[in-house]
Amino acid sequence: MKKRRLSPGTEAISAIAAVVILYIILESFGVTCPIKYLTGISCAGCGMSRAWISLLHFNFRDAFMYHPLFFLPPVALIIMLCKSKINIKFYKIFMFTIAGAFVIVYLYRMIAGNDNIVVFEPQNNIIFRIMRELKK
Asked: In the chain, what are the helix, strand and coil shares in percent, each to the nearest 5?
């Protein structure tokens, strides 16, 4: 029996649906960010959910403050879905540019530390929290 291969668009949508379902499950247990929960360190996308919620409330200033690159993931998704129809060189340059922008913004937010959205608190990771609970 021959395996049927999913189209790239279907694969992307399935992956996004899986992430959304996982996020909803974790959120129901009080885990808003799995990376921050496990490590105590914010990820490069930290503030993205709050940015989109602010945008849905037409609060553009807060959306930008939560994450200045909140508008890029949908653009990247559209480019990914159209990958077969666009020049591969443009695709690679565009994706590396987006990744670079996220790295630059993440490092700036981590180093500047002028907000409480992106934090470096390894002492609050899951292992240290368990150890503190066991000491009680």
From this structure: 70, 0, 30
